[in-house]
Design goal:
By secondary structure, the protein is α+β, with helices and mostly antiparallel strands. The protein has eight helices and 42 strands. Helix 5 runs antiparallel to helix 6 and helix 6 runs antiparallel to helix 7.
């Protein structure tokens, strides 16, 4: 159990995951949280001198708490050293429509920006080779970085709405990369605006936090938390509760940061960064709202500060180094004893089984009986896995079928499969009725995305009457494009859309890539020309791959996403650093055109509405004065008429406002789709050309140059 060094009860509620800490007043940092009524409060346990206390909009709410009115739902909050020349932290507050950089001491906005893509997450720090720190905002499919002046220095697109951001030196080169978690279950790592790694998780990534160098912690919406070291996951655990906030802090003082998690049931746990084992815990009476660190109650020493949604704040000091060491040792020892006891139990059970069998076989005629009823199976028993595709029918969509079979008369009693992203949950069990068991078993695998799946299987093999079974553990790798079945002859016309590019590699290398990434009955071989047709089981659309002796590759598909997946996979296999392509996607471009027209329409309508609303409110103001005047002089008839007019005008104003709200929702959804198309178009390219497409597309959209946009998507250049 963890003992807090202090515990406070604030009179204000705290919104989950809207907690930060800022050094605004010099010596002591102040806890800053979003609270009820669209407000943000700033709290320090110390008296801040009146000279330093912000005035006007910041009204003192008793003690050392100051309130800040935002008047809009706070969607994200972060304090940090955005402007080093100020000498204190800047508070960034994001809402659905804008972003404010606030100077707490001077009580003024440093800048205010409209962010139509929203601000779901904010982080402040240095990104890549940028000289100055940036406030990086994650919105609907877009990421934007502002400098201290409010100029946007950085913009890029990502696959879906951003839920979490963290700056991590992912590749240990001394510069920080941006790790982005989004609603499409993907964690992407950006070196400035180039994606250098992509990891697919099983749910929305709600939290990300740097741990040390290339390590970072993550939390998913389904209650999973864990740590990644570069692209590989060190460990993860899953809880039925939901992790509200994660953080890193060296609480046992051994020089390595632990992962601290605050849970929705009020639990705080501190886990070893490399094993995930709990080394400390504490409990709040209500859900945890956030975790930060700072020299909150005592100068210079960082404390771990946890707060709950009910406004309870607890601080923990790191242990003295010596006691930390012993505690760790005890933990390691206990863990070893636990593991060894478990191994002993398993071995004893196995031994008992063998003894039972032996005593059975020593009975007269026992051997025969034993082979079928007890758990003995032939020593050469093997379990095989085979992948195939079921093309499906109207009721059942096409899917990959995994056939598991034994090589003799033994039966498969049950199969447990562990794999991410293909089952509802992370595992799947097949346990046929005892009358239906046989030596083979089929398991359908529904692949939603084009990603390779590594399935780990546990197969229970024995005889029908056995009570004990042998467990075979097998790994089965489902190739990335398993959902595309090979067709000798397409029954549908070839797709109109395509990407075209030339590579330096021989056709044989491309064949090896195809054999590894597609599910084929026989491996593909070619010496001069390649022309392969596939049918997607996702949506029954064709895909054609060709390569000619001049080493020109053409990928024909009408789906921009599929083309991007194939280009990325092939380029990774062939180790191509930079690749530009010619793209022809008439349908997608037509849709993009429609989208941009809609965005334009909504933007101009918005301007009209804003002007109308301003007019109406001015008119209302003067009418109120006039109506009051008539009341004072006792002209009730005119007053009544005045108020009726006022009532009507007010109704119009409310109506206009509602239209503007709907207009905004629509605008956001269209902007998101435009961002998505740009992201897909960039994924058709590799390296510098990939980045170039994003930058050029943005410039074209800013200048409202549709023909340039079409050209960039088609050629990769303007
Ligand atoms: Ca780096
Ligand atoms: Ca530690």
């Amino acid at each position: 159990m963890l003992m807090p060094i202090f515990s406070l009860k604030l009179s204000m509620k705290i919104k989950p995951n809207k907690v930060t800490i800022g050094n605004y007043f010099g010596k002591y940092p102040a806890l800053t949280c979003a609270t009820n009524g669209d407000k943000v409060f700033i709290h320090t346990p110390h008296k801040i001198s009146e000279a330093n206390r912000p005035q006007s909009t910041l009204t003192s709410a008793g003690g050392d708490v100051n309130l800040l009115n935002i008047n809009q739902k706070v969607s994200s909050i972060c304090a940090g050293n955005l402007n080093p020349s100020l000498g204190y932290d800047v508070l960034m507050i994001g809402t659905d429509t804008n972003l404010v950089a606030y100077d707490v001491i001077q009580n003024r906005d440093l800048f205010y920006r409209e962010t139509p893509d929203g601000a779901n997450a904010i982080t402040i720090g240095k990104l890549g080779a940028f000289q100055d720190p940036l406030a990086i905002i994650g919105g609907n499919c877009s990421i934007q970085g502002f400098d201290a002046k409010g100029d946007d220095q950085f913009w890029t697109v990502t696959g879906d709405n951003v839920c979490s951001l963290a700056l991590v030196d992912f590749d240990k080169d001394g510069q920080k990369e941006l790790v982005v978690g989004s609603e499409d279950f993907d964690i992407r790592v950006f070196r400035e605006d180039e994606i250098i790694a992509e990891m697919t998780e099983t749910e929305m990534i709600t939290c990300l936090h740097p741990i040390s160098e290339c390590k970072f912690g993550y939390a998913l919406q389904n209650g999973t938390i864990g740590i990644y070291e570069r692209t590989s996951r060190s460990w993860r655990i899953k809880s039925k509760n939901h992790a509200v906030s994660i953080f890193s802090f060296d609480l046992n003082n051994d020089g390595v940061s632990e992962l601290i998690t605050g849970w929705s049931n009020g639990k705080i746990d501190v886990r070893n960064d490399s094993t995930g084992e709990i080394i400390f815990k504490d409990n709040f009476n209500s859900s945890v709202a956030g975790i930060v660190k700072g020299a909150y109650t005592q100068p210079e020493n960082d404390q771990l500060i946890c707060c709950s949604v009910e406004g309870e704040v607890r601080g923990y000091n790191p242990l003295a180094p010596s006691s930390g060491q012993t505690l760790m040792d005890i933990n390691v020892e206990q863990e070893m004893i636990r593991e060894m006891t478990q191994t002993k139990q398993t071995l004893l059970m196995e031994l008992k089984n063998y003894q039972d069998k032996l005593s059975q076989s020593q009975r007269p005629g026992g051997t025969e009986e034993l082979e079928k009823s007890a758990s003995m199976i032939p020593v050469d028993t093997k379990v095989n896995c085979e992948l195939d595709v079921n093309t499906g029918n109207q009721e059942f969509p096409g899917h990959v079928v995994l056939t598991i079979s034994t090589n003799n008369d033994t039966i498969i009693r049950a199969v447990t499969a562990f794999a991410e992203g293909i089952f509802d949950g992370e595992s799947h069990v097949i346990h046929p009725h005892i009358n239906k068991v046989s030596s083979s078993l089929k398991m359908p695998l529904r692949l939603q995305k084009d990603i390779p799946v590594d399935a780990h299987l546990k197969v229970l093999v024995g005889y029908k009457n056995c009570s004990h079974f042998h467990v075979f553990e097998i790994n089965c790798l489902v190739p990335r494009f398993a959902m595309y079945i090979f067709c000798q002859q397409l029954t549908v016309p070839e797709p109109e859309g395509f990407v075209k590019f030339t590579i330096n590699d021989r056709i044989q290398r491309v064949c090896i890539w195809i054999n590894q990434n597609f599910l084929l009955k026989e491996p593909v071989q070619a010496s001069n020309n390649l022309h392969l047709s596939f049918l997607s089981m996702h949506n029954q659309t064709p895909l054609v791959l060709t390569m000619d002796p001049a080493r020109q590759v053409i990928i024909k598909t009408d789906d921009l996403d599929v083309a991007g997946n194939i280009v990325q996979s092939l380029a990774t296999y062939l180790k191509i650093d930079d690749l530009n392509v010619t793209a022809h996607f008439p349908e997608e471009l037509k849709a993009l055109n429609v989208l941009i027209e809609k965005v334009d329409g909504l933007n101009s309508m918005r301007q009209t509405l804003t002007a109308n609303i301003a007019d109406h409110s001015n008119l209302i103001r003067s009418m109120v004065v006039r109506a009051e005047d008539t009341r004072l002089i006792g002209d009730m008839k005119t007053m009544k008429r005045g108020y009726i007019e006022l009532y009507n005008l007010n109704r119009d104003l409310v109506r206009d406002y509602n239209i503007r709200c709907n207009n905004h929702t629509e605008l956001v959804s269209y902007l998101k789709q435009v961002n998505l198309v740009i992201q897909k178009a960039s994924r058709l390219r590799v390296g510098k050309y990939k980045t170039q497409v994003v930058t050029l597309c943005r410039a074209a959209i800013k200048n409202n140059n549709i023909s340039a946009l079409v050209k960039i998507i088609t050629t990769g250049a303007s």
